[in-house]
Amino acid sequence: YAFKKESLELTYEVGDDIGSGNFAVVRRVTYRDSGQEYAAKFIRKRRGGGRKGARMEDIHKEISILRSLDHRNVISLYEVFETSQEVILILELVTGGELFDHISRKDHLGEEEASAFIGQILHGLKHLHDNNIAHLDLKPENIMLLDRNSQSIKLIDFGLAQRISEKEDIRALMGTAEFIAPEVVSYERLSLATDMWSIGVITYILLSGASPFLGDSQQETYHNITALNYEFDQEYFENTSDLAKDFIRRLFVKNPRKRATVDDCINHAWIRPKKQNEELQRKSAVINID
Ligand SMILES: Nc1cc2c(nn1)-c1ccccc1CC2
Questions:
Q1: Taking each helix axis from N to C terminus, what angle separates 242-249 and 193-208, rounded to the nearest 10 degrees?
Q2: Which position among 2, 9, 185, 246 has the lowest Cβ density within 10 Å, counted as fewest Cβ atoms?
Q3: Tens digit of pLDDT for each residue in 259-290?
Q4: What global pTM score does this model have?
Protein backbone atom coordinates (compact mmCIF):
# COMPACT_ATOMS: atom_id res chain seq x y z
CA TYR A 1 0.00 0.00 0.00
CA ALA A 2 1.96 3.03 -1.25
CA PHE A 3 1.72 6.47 0.33
CA LYS A 4 2.49 9.69 -1.52
CA LYS A 5 6.23 10.33 -1.39
CA GLU A 6 6.11 13.90 -2.67
CA SER A 7 6.42 16.66 -0.09
CA LEU A 8 3.15 17.56 1.63
CA GLU A 9 4.10 21.26 1.34
CA LEU A 10 3.67 21.15 -2.45
CA THR A 11 -0.07 20.60 -2.09
CA TYR A 12 -0.86 21.88 1.41
CA GLU A 13 0.07 24.96 3.43
CA VAL A 14 0.78 23.85 7.00
CA GLY A 15 -0.88 25.88 9.78
CA ASP A 16 -0.99 25.80 13.58
CA ASP A 17 -1.12 22.82 15.96
CA ILE A 18 -4.63 21.68 16.88
CA GLY A 19 -3.90 18.58 18.93
CA SER A 20 -1.65 15.64 19.60
CA GLY A 21 -1.77 11.89 20.20
CA ASN A 22 0.68 9.09 20.93
CA PHE A 23 3.77 9.80 18.72
CA ALA A 24 1.64 12.25 16.75
CA VAL A 25 1.01 15.97 16.34
CA VAL A 26 -2.02 17.30 14.45
CA ARG A 27 -1.89 20.55 12.49
CA ARG A 28 -4.49 22.52 10.55
CA VAL A 29 -3.55 22.50 6.81
CA THR A 30 -4.98 24.28 3.76
CA TYR A 31 -5.20 22.57 0.34
CA ARG A 32 -3.50 25.17 -1.87
CA ASP A 33 -5.69 24.75 -4.96
CA SER A 34 -9.08 25.05 -3.26
CA GLY A 35 -8.41 26.76 0.10
CA GLN A 36 -10.22 23.81 1.75
CA GLU A 37 -8.95 23.13 5.30
CA TYR A 38 -8.04 19.71 6.72
CA ALA A 39 -6.31 18.24 9.78
CA ALA A 40 -2.90 16.67 9.10
CA LYS A 41 -1.78 14.08 11.65
CA PHE A 42 2.04 13.76 11.59
CA ILE A 43 2.94 10.36 13.06
CA ARG A 44 6.62 9.77 13.91
CA LYS A 45 7.95 6.49 12.53
CA ARG A 46 9.91 4.25 14.89
CA ARG A 47 13.54 4.30 13.70
CA GLY A 48 15.79 1.26 14.26
CA GLY A 49 15.30 -0.55 17.56
CA GLY A 50 14.27 2.58 19.42
CA ARG A 51 11.04 2.90 21.41
CA LYS A 52 10.08 6.41 20.25
CA GLY A 53 7.71 6.57 17.31
CA ALA A 54 4.92 4.32 16.13
CA ARG A 55 5.57 0.94 14.50
CA MET A 56 4.74 0.86 10.77
CA GLU A 57 2.43 -2.12 11.47
CA ASP A 58 0.36 0.02 13.86
CA ILE A 59 0.29 2.99 11.47
CA HIS A 60 -0.90 0.72 8.65
CA LYS A 61 -3.59 -0.71 10.94
CA GLU A 62 -4.90 2.78 11.88
CA ILE A 63 -5.01 3.73 8.19
CA SER A 64 -6.68 0.53 7.02
CA ILE A 65 -9.30 0.83 9.80
CA LEU A 66 -10.00 4.52 8.96
CA ARG A 67 -10.28 3.68 5.24
CA SER A 68 -12.89 1.01 5.95
CA LEU A 69 -15.15 3.41 7.90
CA ASP A 70 -17.58 5.96 6.45
CA HIS A 71 -19.97 7.61 8.94
CA ARG A 72 -20.85 11.19 9.87
CA ASN A 73 -19.76 10.58 13.48
CA VAL A 74 -16.37 9.07 12.50
CA ILE A 75 -13.45 11.22 11.29
CA SER A 76 -12.76 10.79 7.55
CA LEU A 77 -9.32 10.02 6.08
CA TYR A 78 -8.63 11.55 2.66
CA GLU A 79 -5.01 10.75 1.77
CA VAL A 80 -1.65 9.70 3.20
CA PHE A 81 1.87 11.06 2.67
CA GLU A 82 5.12 9.42 3.80
CA THR A 83 8.59 10.83 4.42
CA SER A 84 11.63 9.06 5.88
CA GLN A 85 10.65 10.22 9.40
CA GLU A 86 6.86 10.43 9.35
CA VAL A 87 3.56 9.19 7.97
CA ILE A 88 1.06 12.03 7.49
CA LEU A 89 -2.72 11.40 7.52
CA ILE A 90 -4.88 14.04 5.84
CA LEU A 91 -8.07 13.96 7.92
CA GLU A 92 -11.39 15.80 8.02
CA LEU A 93 -11.01 19.02 10.03
CA VAL A 94 -13.29 19.44 13.05
CA THR A 95 -13.11 22.74 14.87
CA GLY A 96 -15.46 22.37 17.85
CA GLY A 97 -12.72 21.22 20.22
CA GLU A 98 -12.70 18.12 22.42
CA LEU A 99 -15.81 17.02 24.31
CA PHE A 100 -13.40 17.02 27.27
CA ASP A 101 -13.01 20.83 27.08
CA HIS A 102 -16.77 21.29 26.60
CA ILE A 103 -17.43 19.44 29.90
CA SER A 104 -14.60 21.19 31.77
CA ARG A 105 -16.10 24.58 30.90
CA LYS A 106 -19.49 23.54 32.29
CA ASP A 107 -18.27 21.12 35.03
CA HIS A 108 -21.08 18.75 34.02
CA LEU A 109 -24.00 18.63 31.56
CA GLY A 110 -27.78 18.42 31.99
CA GLU A 111 -29.36 15.04 31.21
CA GLU A 112 -30.88 16.17 27.89
CA GLU A 113 -27.52 17.44 26.61
CA ALA A 114 -25.61 14.43 27.99
CA SER A 115 -28.13 12.00 26.45
CA ALA A 116 -27.86 13.79 23.07
CA PHE A 117 -24.04 13.60 23.09
CA ILE A 118 -24.01 9.93 24.18
CA GLY A 119 -26.59 9.14 21.46
CA GLN A 120 -24.26 10.66 18.82
CA ILE A 121 -21.26 8.73 20.19
CA LEU A 122 -23.31 5.49 20.16
CA HIS A 123 -24.25 5.99 16.48
CA GLY A 124 -20.59 6.45 15.53
CA LEU A 125 -19.62 3.47 17.71
CA LYS A 126 -22.38 1.32 16.14
CA HIS A 127 -20.74 1.88 12.73
CA LEU A 128 -17.42 0.61 14.15
CA HIS A 129 -18.99 -2.37 15.95
CA ASP A 130 -21.11 -3.35 12.91
CA ASN A 131 -17.75 -3.60 11.09
CA ASN A 132 -16.27 -5.62 13.99
CA ILE A 133 -13.91 -2.80 14.90
CA ALA A 134 -13.28 -1.83 18.54
CA HIS A 135 -11.91 1.67 19.22
CA LEU A 136 -10.28 0.64 22.58
CA ASP A 137 -9.35 4.18 23.54
CA LEU A 138 -12.72 5.92 23.99
CA LYS A 139 -12.43 8.96 26.28
CA PRO A 140 -13.61 12.59 26.14
CA GLU A 141 -10.27 13.68 24.60
CA ASN A 142 -10.95 11.40 21.60
CA ILE A 143 -14.41 12.80 20.95
CA MET A 144 -14.38 16.06 18.99
CA LEU A 145 -17.28 18.48 18.51
CA LEU A 146 -18.00 19.35 14.86
CA ASP A 147 -18.18 22.99 15.85
CA ARG A 148 -18.63 25.05 19.03
CA ASN A 149 -22.42 25.16 19.19
CA SER A 150 -23.50 21.77 17.88
CA GLN A 151 -23.91 18.38 19.50
CA SER A 152 -22.51 16.73 16.36
CA ILE A 153 -19.45 14.76 17.35
CA LYS A 154 -16.70 12.86 15.55
CA LEU A 155 -14.76 9.91 16.96
CA ILE A 156 -11.01 10.46 16.40
CA ASP A 157 -7.68 8.73 17.09
CA PHE A 158 -7.92 5.12 15.92
CA GLY A 159 -4.33 4.48 17.03
CA LEU A 160 -5.37 1.66 19.38
CA ALA A 161 -8.36 0.41 17.33
CA GLN A 162 -8.47 -3.31 16.51
CA ARG A 163 -10.46 -5.58 14.20
CA ILE A 164 -12.15 -8.05 16.56
CA SER A 165 -12.60 -11.59 15.25
CA GLU A 166 -13.64 -14.76 17.07
CA LYS A 167 -10.45 -16.62 16.15
CA GLU A 168 -7.56 -14.36 17.10
CA ASP A 169 -7.20 -13.46 20.77
CA ILE A 170 -6.55 -9.76 21.41
CA ARG A 171 -5.19 -8.79 24.80
CA ALA A 172 -4.31 -5.63 26.63
CA LEU A 173 -3.35 -2.57 24.76
CA MET A 174 -3.39 -0.28 27.72
CA GLY A 175 -5.74 2.64 27.04
CA THR A 176 -6.06 5.42 29.63
CA ALA A 177 -6.41 3.96 33.13
CA GLU A 178 -9.69 5.59 34.26
CA PHE A 179 -11.53 4.52 31.05
CA ILE A 180 -10.38 0.91 30.66
CA ALA A 181 -12.57 -2.12 31.34
CA PRO A 182 -11.83 -4.90 33.89
CA GLU A 183 -10.76 -7.33 31.11
CA VAL A 184 -8.06 -4.87 30.02
CA VAL A 185 -6.76 -4.51 33.60
CA SER A 186 -6.71 -8.33 34.01
CA TYR A 187 -5.07 -8.90 30.62
CA GLU A 188 -8.03 -10.95 29.39
CA ARG A 189 -9.60 -11.13 25.92
CA LEU A 190 -10.71 -7.75 24.55
CA SER A 191 -13.91 -7.35 22.56
CA LEU A 192 -16.43 -4.79 21.32
CA ALA A 193 -17.82 -4.86 24.89
CA THR A 194 -14.58 -3.22 26.04
CA ASP A 195 -15.75 0.00 24.35
CA MET A 196 -19.13 -0.21 26.09
CA TRP A 197 -17.51 -0.01 29.53
CA SER A 198 -15.79 3.22 28.39
CA ILE A 199 -19.19 4.60 27.28
CA GLY A 200 -20.33 4.05 30.89
CA VAL A 201 -17.34 6.01 32.23
CA ILE A 202 -17.89 8.86 29.73
CA THR A 203 -21.63 9.05 30.61
CA TYR A 204 -20.86 9.12 34.34
CA ILE A 205 -18.37 11.98 33.78
CA LEU A 206 -20.74 13.98 31.50
CA LEU A 207 -23.48 13.82 34.16
CA SER A 208 -21.36 14.50 37.25
CA GLY A 209 -17.99 15.93 36.27
CA ALA A 210 -16.49 13.17 38.47
CA SER A 211 -14.61 10.06 37.29
CA PRO A 212 -16.18 6.85 38.70
CA PHE A 213 -13.09 4.68 39.30
CA LEU A 214 -10.27 7.23 39.49
CA GLY A 215 -8.03 6.60 42.51
CA ASP A 216 -5.01 8.40 43.91
CA SER A 217 -2.71 6.07 41.97
CA GLN A 218 -2.98 3.98 38.80
CA GLN A 219 -2.94 0.84 40.97
CA GLU A 220 -5.86 2.15 43.05
CA THR A 221 -7.78 3.01 39.86
CA TYR A 222 -7.17 -0.53 38.51
CA HIS A 223 -8.37 -2.00 41.82
CA ASN A 224 -11.53 0.13 41.76
CA ILE A 225 -12.25 -1.07 38.21
CA THR A 226 -11.80 -4.80 38.84
CA ALA A 227 -13.72 -4.52 42.15
CA LEU A 228 -16.47 -2.42 40.48
CA ASN A 229 -15.90 0.01 43.28
CA TYR A 230 -18.05 2.98 42.24
CA GLU A 231 -21.16 4.71 43.53
CA PHE A 232 -23.63 7.38 42.47
CA ASP A 233 -22.44 9.90 45.03
CA GLN A 234 -25.48 11.91 46.26
CA GLU A 235 -23.34 15.04 46.02
CA TYR A 236 -23.29 14.72 42.19
CA PHE A 237 -26.24 12.42 41.41
CA GLU A 238 -29.07 13.57 43.64
CA ASN A 239 -30.90 15.17 40.66
CA THR A 240 -30.00 12.43 38.16
CA SER A 241 -32.86 10.27 36.89
CA ASP A 242 -33.06 6.55 37.69
CA LEU A 243 -33.12 5.97 33.92
CA ALA A 244 -29.66 7.58 33.54
CA LYS A 245 -28.29 5.54 36.46
CA ASP A 246 -29.80 2.35 34.97
CA PHE A 247 -28.08 3.17 31.62
CA ILE A 248 -24.71 3.40 33.41
CA ARG A 249 -25.34 0.31 35.63
CA ARG A 250 -25.89 -1.85 32.53
CA LEU A 251 -22.42 -0.89 31.28
CA PHE A 252 -20.47 -1.35 34.55
CA VAL A 253 -20.84 -5.15 34.31
CA LYS A 254 -17.67 -7.18 34.87
CA ASN A 255 -18.55 -10.04 32.51
CA PRO A 256 -18.16 -8.56 28.98
CA ARG A 257 -20.77 -11.03 27.64
CA LYS A 258 -23.39 -9.71 30.07
CA ARG A 259 -22.58 -6.01 29.41
CA ALA A 260 -25.03 -3.89 27.37
CA THR A 261 -24.15 -3.79 23.64
CA VAL A 262 -24.19 -0.66 21.46
CA ASP A 263 -27.67 -1.66 20.20
CA ASP A 264 -28.95 -2.21 23.78
CA CYS A 265 -27.75 1.34 24.56
CA ILE A 266 -29.27 2.94 21.45
CA ASN A 267 -32.60 1.35 22.38
CA HIS A 268 -32.38 2.25 26.07
CA ALA A 269 -35.16 4.63 27.19
CA TRP A 270 -32.59 7.21 28.35
CA ILE A 271 -31.29 7.52 24.78
CA ARG A 272 -34.27 6.88 22.49
CA PRO A 273 -35.76 10.24 21.35
CA LYS A 274 -38.30 11.27 24.00
CA LYS A 275 -41.99 10.46 23.18
CA GLN A 276 -43.09 14.04 22.50
CA ASN A 277 -40.10 14.58 20.16
CA GLU A 278 -41.03 11.42 18.26
CA GLU A 279 -44.69 12.58 18.05
CA LEU A 280 -43.47 15.97 16.79
CA GLN A 281 -41.14 14.30 14.24
CA ARG A 282 -44.05 12.16 12.94
CA LYS A 283 -46.41 15.16 12.71
CA SER A 284 -43.79 17.30 10.93
CA ALA A 285 -43.17 14.40 8.53
CA VAL A 286 -46.92 14.45 7.63
CA ILE A 287 -46.77 18.23 7.06
CA ASN A 288 -43.74 17.76 4.76
CA ILE A 289 -45.67 15.16 2.71
CA ASP A 290 -48.53 17.65 2.20
N1 LIG B 1 -4.67 11.89 18.33
C2 LIG B 1 -5.42 12.76 17.59
C3 LIG B 1 -5.72 14.02 18.09
C4 LIG B 1 -6.49 14.87 17.31
C5 LIG B 1 -6.89 14.40 16.04
N6 LIG B 1 -6.59 13.14 15.63
N7 LIG B 1 -5.85 12.35 16.40
C8 LIG B 1 -7.68 15.25 15.18
C9 LIG B 1 -8.28 14.72 14.03
C10 LIG B 1 -9.05 15.55 13.21
C11 LIG B 1 -9.22 16.89 13.54
C12 LIG B 1 -8.62 17.43 14.68
C13 LIG B 1 -7.83 16.60 15.50
C14 LIG B 1 -7.09 17.19 16.66
C15 LIG B 1 -6.91 16.21 17.78
A1: 150
A2: 2
A3: 999 999 999 999 987 665 666 666 666 655 54
A4: 0.91
